[in-house]
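Morning run. Coffee first, then this:
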Amino acid sequence: MSGHLDLEQRYRRVLRLLPGWYRDKWEEDMVAAFLDSWHTGDPEDDAWALEFGKPTWDEVASVAGLAVRLYLGGAGAPRRYFAWGQAIRRAVLTVLLVHAVLAVDVLVFLVWRHRLVGWLPAPSWSLVTAAPGGVWPAVFYVVNIAWIAIFVLLVLGRYRAARLLAALAIVPDLAALLQAQLTGIMPVPFGPWAWWVLVNFVPVLAMAAFHHDAPSAARWPWLLALPAGYLLVYGPLLALQAGGNSAWLPDFSGLCCLLAALACLAHVPRAWSRRAAGSGVWSLTLILLAALAGAYRILTLSGYLHDPHLIKVSLAELLVLVAAAALVAPDAARAQAATPAPPPQPHTMAA
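And here it is:
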């Protein structure tokens, strides 16, 4: 009897990974199913299993996977978990959109610099930079093309292919950073650790929010956001650079802060309107994006320690971002406060 209780407690400890609302409904059934899987019909084998057995790695992994899907809720999840799941999914799509827009910019400069399209005028001398040699630039271009494909695959609902390609796409950046750690020479096209962790690694991990219970993204708005984002953001930046006014431009982390702040300000009318359906999830998404942009701004401040003016500019960007995010924060909080929906049936994998 004590062995039975020992094995049962081991399973209950594993099931603590699941949200409380789900355990309240299904814990007893799941524990009974797990314990029943140990019964062989042989009293001695059953007694040994109940006393010394423990959850297998497959069972622990299945419960952990179920926990991720439940916390990043899909259809049928309580509103709090559904709101967080939707916000994370939209934030990931936005970060991948940034990757894709940057990739388009890289490819446009590649085509323009090498005059691969005959009717385009020659680029201004201020836009021409010396291209580094070696294998790293070629890898960099391949990775950028991959980010465009990852974004499109995720929007089209090909989650598994998108996750696999994204996991491969962040490897070259990591290899470049490790080479820089070992040799002191950083390959030119790649960014710092802050970029890899916050803009590469974290979004790839967060792609776990895209699962079979998650609602599909609106395809055409997201797909059209790629060319629109390039024209609206990099069109004006390109004009400033071509006019010799590049000193007016913020660095990339500052640009992210300003864009996130503008998105929050544009969303304020919907966030403050009690009749705007679904505004809370977008407010929560903007809070996540603002936190990401703010963290990246803070981590890149170390590069400006020698320049007090740039430190002040960077802090001003952070202040603008925090003020804009504060305007939508109450709506983001309201998105999580609601009566839970009926919990779904336990998934076969975990049961």
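DSSP finds 13 helices and no strands in the chain. Good start to the day.
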